[in-house]
Each structure stands twice: as C-alpha cells, then as structure tokens.
Design a protein that fits this description.
- This protein is an all-alpha fold and 405 residues long.
- Helix content is 50%, strand content 1%.
- The chain contains 17 helices and two strands.
- It has a two-stranded antiparallel sheet.
- A hairpin with a 7-residue loop joins strand 1 and strand 2.
C-alpha cells in the first residue's frame, strides 16, 4: 500500500539491480560498505531500508514474535530531527539536510511499526507532526512533501495517523481531510474500472483504475493501516453505489477488487509489452483489503492461491515480501507459520539481525565488489541513478504501470 506493496517489490528490484523509490542520498560512496547488522535483508537499503524494516517489525508483531531490539533501535535511529524518515541514512549521527530525501511513505510506515510495538511515543509523535505539516490542501499526501496527492501515499499516512491514536477524518488542511482526497480519487460506479481507485488523476483529469491504489484506498477509507484486523462484514462484496462516505468508497473499491480476483484468484501484472503474469504482491494487498472490510469469501480464496504460489516469490523478493504475506495471513485469521508448508515468520527472522550469516554474506559481497576490476558494478550504479532521476522512483512508477481494467 506497500506504498504498501512496494516493500516486497522493492527488495526484488534491489536483487535484480533495477531502480527503486526516491534516493536517500544521491552521492555514491567511494566504495561498497557493509550493511548495518540490524537491518533486514542483504540488498542495498538506499531506496527502501526504512520501509522494509518497518514491515518486517510490523509483521513479526502481528505474528506474536518479538523483534530484536537492535532492529527496532536501527529504525528509530533513522529519524531526522524534524520527525521525518529517509529510506536510509548510512550515518544516523550526521544531521539531515536539504539533500536528505525524506518521504511520507517511509515516515508513515515507521510510525505504524513503532506504534504497534509501543514505547516509542516521542518518535511517533514527532513523525506524525511532520506528516501533518506536509499535508496537501486537498487533504491528501504525495510521496514527497509538496508533491500531488496520490491514493497510496494518503493511505499509508492514514494508517499512521490511526496507529498513533489520531482520528484521520479530523486531520485537515484547507478544510479538507484525507477522506476528501480519497473520494476525489475513486472512479464512479459506471464504466471501465467502476468503483476502483486511481493512483493519481491523468493529465486530462480523468481517473484510471489501479489495483495497487484500490487496495490502498480500501484500507484508508476504512481508517486502517498495514496491520489490519479481520473485518466484520457478511463475507461477500457489496454492490457499487455512488460514494458519499469513506465507508461506501471502501465498499466500492472492495467490490472492484473482488470482481478482478473472481476469475483466477489473483490479479494480473499489467506491464506494457509483457505477457500477462500473476501479480503476487498486489494480490496479497487485495487480500488484506478485502479481509479488513469483512469480504472474507474472495479474500480466503485468493489467500489459498497465495499459499500455493507465493512462497517462491517471497524467497526471491526478500524480507518485505515475507512480511507482506504475514500481514495477509493476519488479516484473514490464518497461521503464517503454516503457509502452504512454509513458516513465513521463520523465513523473515532468518533475514534479520538474528541471522549472523546474513551480515557475513553481505560483507563478503561488498568486499568482492570492491576488489573486482569489472566495470559492471560501476555501470549498474549509473543505471540506477539515471532511472532514479526520472521521477520519484519505483513506488510511483510501479503503481502507475499496474493499471487494471
């Protein structure tokens, strides 16, 4: 809502050497540096460190497992003095400045994780204060301060506000609340994509259905965050009706998702020029959204599909992917320790501070890259920087590509 689903895909992107969200620091280090021992995953955290750490902590909490104190301490130490979070700061002792690329998604995800764990009010209060200070006049949030509102960023901030004990509907700017922004981003109940949410309006002001944004929009309209409890619906999706309230907007979005999932049990990755393939991350997000509203019939069917097909995807994608599946299990009331024969919690923990071999492996990899005379590493980095410079990065580009009919 990864922003939300971005977590899993961001880790996969790092594995493949592709671009990710906005850079924390555009200046390359003179040589590869060992990863922080308290960080989850062994891929470059420059673009998604705080996001994937937050999801990893949140997922363990959801599964009743206590995250390592070192991992929690690393996350709190990433906060800037103004309350915001950047994806990754290699030296937390150095003050953030104008070049530190903070964003709403990393900040809101950190709030959700730390609020769930408890005992971090000073950190979360400061972060919520920063989020309120960068709210747009339409009531929503963009990925970075001052950027146009989008459904995904607004959603993850709504989740942070709710987790911190705020009432999202009462957090207003220019007289508008985040729910006003969300209602403006939902498609009508007639025509293509009826009831879905758009990521952002097109240049001509029209709205295009987006599955990732729809899952995010449903959760936000319900006032829920990444860690969603099972809802109390009648088990089936509602009929789309013109939305005058957040609750109706959530019902409409859920009906759209259920309809898209009905035929095959999963959503398709609508990537231009590529063959249709299952979109595992979006499907997991849709399961959470449907379950959170109480639309259990389709949520359970799609969760069953995930149990049969998602373990390999998570193993390739990294800790945030495992976290995403754990959150889907939690929302449906399933056991993440028996996910089609895979213990998701164990796999997630193996990617964190409790696994010394992970740190050794990452350090060895960094040394190998440092000593190599091959130009591949240099050009790989240049490619990442070029792609990162095109726009906000993977969080936004991925969402806009995954447009659903």
């Amino acid at each position: 809502m990864n922003v939300r689903r971005s977590a899993a895909v961001l880790s996969a992107v790092a594995v493949l050497g592709a671009a990710a969200p906005a850079a924390a620091d555009s200046s390359p280090s003179p040589s590869p540096q060992p990863l922080p021992s308290a960080l989850y995953g062994d891929t470059d955290p420059q673009y998604d460190g705080v996001w994937r750490q937050s999801l990893a902590l949140l997922a363990q909490h959801a599964a009743g497992a206590e995250p390592p104190k070192a991992a929690v301490g690393w996350l709190t130490g990433q906060q800037c003095a103004d309350g915001s979070f950047a994806p990754f700061r290699a030296d937390p002792s150095a003050a953030c400045d104008a070049k530190t690329m903070v964003d709403t998604n990393q900040t809101a995800a950190a709030v959700q994780a730390l609020a769930a764990l408890g005992g971090h009010d000073a950190v979360t209060d400061k972060a919520v204060g920063w989020l309120k200070s960068v709210q747009n006049e339409d009531g929503g949030w963009g990925y970075t301060a001052g950027s146009p509102s989008d459904t995904n960023s607004t959603s993850v901030v709504v989740g942070a506000l709710a987790a911190a004990g705020e009432k999202p509907g009462e957090v207003k700017k220019g007289g508008k609340s985040p729910y006003d922004a969300l209602l403006d981003l939902e498609l009508p109940c007639t025509g293509k994509g009826a009831g879905a949410f758009a990521y952002q309006p097109e240049k001509d002001g029209s709205l295009t259905a987006n599955a990732d944004a729809t899952a995010a929009g449903v959760l936000a309209a319900l006032g829920k965050g990444l860690l969603a409890e099972p809802g109390e619906g009648d088990g089936s999706a509602a009929k789309c009706v013109k939305a005058a309230t957040p609750e109706q907007a959530a019902a409409n979005g859920a009906a759209h998702l259920a309809g898209e999932l009905a035929a095959q049990g999963y959503l398709l990755a609508a990537t231009p020029g590529a063959e249709d393939q299952p979109d595992v991350g979006n499907t997991a997000d849709a399961v959470v959204a449907l379950a959170a509203r109480g639309d259990t019939a389709q949520a359970e069917k799609s969760y069953a599909w995930l149990e049969k097909n998602a373990a390999g995807w998570a193993a390739q994608s990294g800790p945030a992917a495992y976290a995403q599946l754990i959150l889907a299990a939690h929302a449906t009331g399933a056991d993440p320790r028996d996910f089609g024969g895979t213990d998701l919690v164990k796999q997630l923990q193996a990617a964190g501070p409790a696994a010394p071999e992970k740190t050794a492996k990452a350090t060895e990899k960094a040394e190998d890259e440092k000593d190599s005379d091959s130009p591949f590493g240099v050009w790989w980095f240049v490619g990442v920087c070029l792609v990162a410079g095109i726009g906000i990065g993977f969080l936004i580009s991925n969402r806009t590509k995954r447009q659903q009919p």
